[in-house]
Amino acid sequence: MDNALRESAKKIAELLKVLANENRLLIFCALTEEAMTVGELARIVPGITQGALSQHLSLLKAHGILDNKKSGQSVTYFIADKRVGEILKVLKKHYCVQKNEP
After folding, report:
1. CA atoms of 90 and 102, how far apart (whole Å)
2. Exposed/middle/buried for 91, CB within 10 Å: 0-12, 13-18, 19+?
3. CA distances from 36 to 8, 47, 50 (A)
4. What is the model's pTM?
5. Residue-wise over 38-72: b if at least 16 C-beta within 10 A, else e?
6. Which residues pair with 45 in a beta bridge?
7. Taking every pair of C-alpha atoms in the chain, what is the biggest distance, in angstroms?
8. Taking the CB of the first residue and of the last residue of the chain, which one, N or C, has fewer CB atoms within 10 A?
9. In what order do the strands lie in the sheet with 74-79?
10. How far is CA 20 from CA 4, 13, 59, in A?
11. Angle at the Cα of 13 (from 10 to 15), degrees rounded to 5?
């Protein structure tokens, strides 16, 4: 097997490990619509503490998946890696549906 292909597979597997978390996927479903502050995300990801949410956001930022902009006291997060954004749009289309949708 080609070493470049093996390296690509390794990177993709690592990315999928980072994304393989219910709360992080909820964060992504929200951020595919628009950039959001931590407070806005906290309302969308129920049952998670502010500290846990911050840890998820920090992990996603450390992997280059998310980035943020600071404006005064407010921190707004957005999807930085557009490739991941495209992957998540496909997942959202099929799995992040509202209750009244099939």
Report:
1. 16
2. middle
3. 31, 18, 14
4. 0.81
5. eebbbeebeebeeeebeebbeebeebebbebeeee
6. none
7. 51
8. C
9. 36-37, 74-79, 66-71
10. 24, 10, 12
11. 110
User: 34-90 pLDDT, tens per residue?
Assistant: 999 999 999 988 889 989 999 999 999 999 999 999 999 999 999 999 888 888 888
Please count the residues of the chain: 102
Name the residue range of residue 52's domain.
Answer: 3-95
Rg, the chain, Cα only: 15
Q: Is residue 68 part of a domain?
A: yes
pLDDT at 29: 83
Give the CATH number, domain containing residue 7.
Answer: 1.10.10.10
3-class DSSP state of 30: helix
Residue 50: which residues within 8 A CB-CB, separation 6 or more?
38, 42
